[in-house]
TrEMBL record:
<comment type="similarity">
    <text>Belongs to the short-chain dehydrogenases/reductases (SDR) family.</text>
</comment>
<dbReference type="InterPro" id="IPR036291">
    <property type="entry name" value="NAD(P)-bd_dom_sf"/>
</dbReference>
<dbReference type="GO" id="GO:0005737">
    <property type="term" value="C:cytoplasm"/>
</dbReference>
<keyword id="KW-0560">Oxidoreductase</keyword>
<dbReference type="Pfam" id="PF00106">
    <property type="entry name" value="adh_short"/>
</dbReference>
<dbReference type="GO" id="GO:0016491">
    <property type="term" value="F:oxidoreductase activity"/>
</dbReference>
<protein>
    <submittedName>
        <fullName>NAD(P)-binding protein</fullName>
    </submittedName>
</protein>
<dbReference type="InterPro" id="IPR002347">
    <property type="entry name" value="SDR_fam"/>
</dbReference>
Length: 315
C-alpha cells in the first residue's frame, strides 16, 4: 500500500496560480470532429487560440469551422485538420492538449459482446478491447507525449515551468463516479481517468503542468443522437440533456482559473457545474446526469447471458 503521507499530500498539493489565458495559445484537440470536442475547439478559436483538429474525419460543421480559420492571418487564430500530430510544424509549439477522442460502449468492443462473438471486432486472440485502447490508453499516452513536448520545446521557445504553465484537459464522465452493469468497460475507463488525473496533482505546482478533467453527464452529441440503441435509454419525459457548450465552458475554466488546481474534475450537467471530490463525494448531482432506461436494458443483458453458449466464438 502507498504511504499515507503520499496519499495525504496528493489531496493537498498547492495550486500553481501563475496567470494562464488561452488567448494567443495553441492547442491540440483529439476527437475534435464532433460533439464536446468540437464545441471546445470552437470556443478556443473564438478566444483567439489556434487549434489542431486531430481526428479520423470531420463532420460537415467541423469542416466548415476549420475552413473558416484555415488561412494564416496576422493576429488571428488558425484551425488545421490533421490525422496525425503536426502542431509543431503548423504553430511552432503546443500550450494545451486535450486527448478528447472517446467511444461510448460501442457494440463492436463491448463487455457483453466478447471477442469472437458476431458483434465484436476485438481479436479473440489479441487480449485487448479497442474501447479500452481508445478510452484509457489514448489519453494516457497522449498525456505522456504532451508532457514530453512541454519539457522539450522547439528551439527558441521556453520550457514549461511554474511561471510558463501548460495544460492537459481530459474528458472523463459521471460514469467515473458510479457503477453501471450495462456499460462496465466504459465505467472502468472513466474510473481509470479520474484516478489518472488525480495522480498527476504535483505536476502543477512543481513543473507548471496542470492536468484536469471534466465529467459530463448526458450530453446531446452524435454519440447519443446517431445511435438508436443508446437513445432508447433516454426518456424524454423524465430525463434531460446537457449541452456540449456547457462542457466546453467548464473546460476553459479549468484551463484558466488559478484555483482549479491540477487534479480538479468538474462535473457538468444541465445548468449545473460542480467540483467532484476525490473522497466523500455524493455522486452525480442535479439535472442531466442520469438516464431512466438502464434497468430495462440490463434485463436484455441478462437475457443474452441466459442463452446457451454465451461467450463462445460466434455467439
Amino acid at each position: 500500500m502507498p504511504d499515507a503521507s503520499i496519499l495525504s499530500s496528493a489531496q493537498t498539493a498547492p495550486p500553481n496560480t501563475a496567470p494562464f489565458s488561452i488567448e494567443g495559445k495553441t492547442a491540440i484537440v483529439t476527437g475534435a470532429g464532433s460533439g464536446i470536442n468540437l464545441s471546445f475547439a470552437t470556443l478556443l478559436l473564438s478566444r483567439n487560440c489556434s487549434v489542431l483538429f486531430a481526428d479520423l474525419s470531420l463532420r460537415p460543421e467541423a469542416q466548415a469551422l476549420v475552413s473558416s480559420y484555415s488561412t494564416p492571418t496576422q493576429g488571428k487564430p488558425r484551425a488545421v485538420f490533421q490525422e496525425t500530430d503536426t502542431a509543431r510544424k503548423e504553430f511552432g509549439g503546443i500550450d494545451i492538449v486535450c486527448p478528447g477522442a472517446g467511444v461510448f460502449d460501442p457494440h463492436w468492443s463491448n463487455f457483453w459482446h466478447p471477442p469472437g462473438s458476431t458483434e465484436s471486432r476485438d481479436d479473440p486472440e489479441g487480449g485487448r478491447y479497442a474501447s479500452i485502447d481508445i478510452n484509457i490508453l489514448h489519453p494516457i499516452r497522449t498525456t505522456q507525449l504532451a508532457i514530453s513536448s512541454f519539457l522539450n520545446p522547439p528551439a527558441g521557445q521556453d520550457k514549461v515551468s511554474p511561471t510558463n504553465p501548460k495544460r492537459v484537459i481530459i474528458i472523463s464522465n459521471v460514469a467515473g463516479q458510479v457503477a453501471n452493469p450495462i456499460t462496465p468497460l466504459y465505467v472502468a475507463g472513466k474510473h481509470a481517468m479520474n484516478g489518472f488525473i488525480r495522480s498527476l496533482t504535483h505536476l502543477d505546482s512543481s513543473l507548471g503542468i496542470r492536468v484536469n478533467g471534466v465529467a459530463p453527464g448526458i450530453i446531446k452529441t452524435p454519440l447519443w443522437t446517431e445511435h438508436p440503441e443508446k437513445l432508447k435509454l433516454f426518456d424524454d419525459g423524465k430525463d434531460e440533456w446537457a449541452s456540449p457548450e456547457e462542457v466546453a465552458e467548464a473546460m476553459v475554466r479549468l484551463l484558466e482559473k488559478g484555483q482549479l488546481e491540477g487534479r480538479t474534475i468538474l462535473e457538468v450537467g444541465a445548468g449545473v457545474t460542480r467540483r467532484v471530490e476525490m473522497l466523500g463525494d455524493p455522486g452525480p448531482q442535479g439535472r442531466g446526469v442520469r438516464i431512466s432506461g438502464a434497468t430495462e436494458e440490463f434485463e436484455g443483458v441478462l437475457g443474452r447471458l441466459r442463452q446457451e453458449g454465451w461467450g463462445k466464438s460466434g455467439k
